[in-house]
Specification:
Blueprint: H1 4-14, E1 20-24, H2 26-39, E2 42-46, H3 65-76, E3 85-91, H4 94-110, E4 113-120, H5 128-136, E5 141-145, H6 148-160, E6 166-170, H7 193-196, E7 200-203, H8 216-226, H9 234-256, H10 261-269, E8 272-274, E9 283-285, E10 296-301, E11 309-316, H11 319-323
Parallel strand pairs: 1-2, 3-4, 3-5, 5-6, 6-7
Antiparallel strand pairs: 7-10, 8-9, 10-11
Length: 327
């Protein structure tokens, strides 16, 4: 559940029966973090908050939100050579706070004209005020840190107001059902689909079926054998990569002869590089604490693709992202 209180309750129900954990969402994961640390359970967070990389009990993968913003600003400004007016609309939670960190670091590094930062609360449904302020500031590029429902409503509000900047979505703001009702290519498009075409996404996993991705053929073969009814989904790809990370940690613990929670933690912290074959950026665990990845996979929404995404930049790392550190 994406409710912190429910997340804590569910964790308490299962904690005595598990060796590892997957935890969905930045705020819910933060809510159970002290318990994870007390119970010594290695956890793969299904979120992209920058601080995760500093906690040895967490096994994050994917580029953090702050670094995604740094990279996409480098991309749209051509490393600072161009000076568009850029703004941020974000959900006021842990994920949003990380995007604000990245946005402010990008503004300092690249000196773009700032259209401002417009927050909204979880559960909000009307985004006219935030979009109107972006329009009044002349924003050329607007980055949206949100879940899919609010992201679609924000872009829809822009279309209603005749405001069509270059929208950029964080990865979790996109889901295939934004394009068609059942999320499958070839089905009837949703009312927002046309407005989404060409929107950039700092995505967390490779587009479905991309032949340039070394691990795609094996993933599709496994999907056909074990989940034949699964439609193309970038979330399936990310989950598959997470499972590869969990398997690598457990394989190391087995090789070390210790499958206790302490042994699994020791395996994770000494694992080293994990080759995810382009499905998501490779990760390294052990040594100096760092972000799981500093490069961003920049994609564009494209209704002609099986998963509605095509790669623009497969591994883009701007100058500011190379040296970024959490304060």
């Amino acid at each position: 559940a994406y409710q912190a209180q429910q997340h804590v309750q569910q964790y308490n129900q299962i904690k005595n029966d598990i060796a590892m954990l997957g935890s969905f969402g930045a705020s819910p994961t933060k809510a159970i973090l002290s318990q994870i640390e007390r119970d010594q359970i290695v956890t793969t967070p299904q979120s992209f908050d920058s601080p995760w990389g500093a906690n040895e009990l967490l096994a994050p993968l994917g580029t953090p939100f702050a670094l995604d913003i740094l990279n996409v600003v480098d991309y749209v400004t051509d490393a600072g050579a161009k000076n568009p007016t850029i703004g941020l609309i974000y959900q006021n939670d842990e994920a949003g706070a990380d995007s604000v960190r990245g946005y402010e670091a990008a503004r300092s590094a690249y000196g773009f004209d700032d259209a401002g930062q417009e927050p909204f609360k979880p559960g909000d449904t009307d985004f006219t005020a935030q979009v109107q302020r972006m329009k009044s500031q002349g924003a050329d590029v607007v980055y949206i840190q949100a879940l899919p429902g609010p992201a679609a409503s924000i872009i829809g509000a822009g279309a209603t107001l005749g405001f069509t900047p270059q929208w950029v979505l964080t990865g979790p703001a996109f889901v295939e059902n934004l394009m068609t009702k059942d999320g499958v290519a070839g089905s009837a498009p949703t009312p927002i689909a046309a407005a989404l075409d060409g929107v950039l996404v700092t995505m967390f996993a490779a587009p479905w079926g991309d032949p340039a991705v070394p691990g795609m053929e094996q993933m599709l073969a496994d999907q056909a054998e074990y989940a034949p009814d699964q439609p193309p989904s970038v979330y399936f790809t990310f989950g598959y990569a997470q499972a590869k990370v969990q398997a690598a940690i457990l394989a190391k613990a087995i090789a070390d002869g210790d499958l206790s929670r302490e042994g699994i933690l020791a395996a994770k912290t000494s694992l080293g590089d994990v080759d995810l074959q382009g499905l998501v950026p490779d990760v390294t665990y052990g040594g100096e604490a760092d972000f799981p990845s500093r490069a961003s996979l920049i994609q564009a929404i494209d209704a002609a693709q099986p998963g509605f995404l095509r790669t623009v930049e497969p591994s883009f790392m701007g100058t500011a992202a190379k040296s970024y550190r959490l304060e």
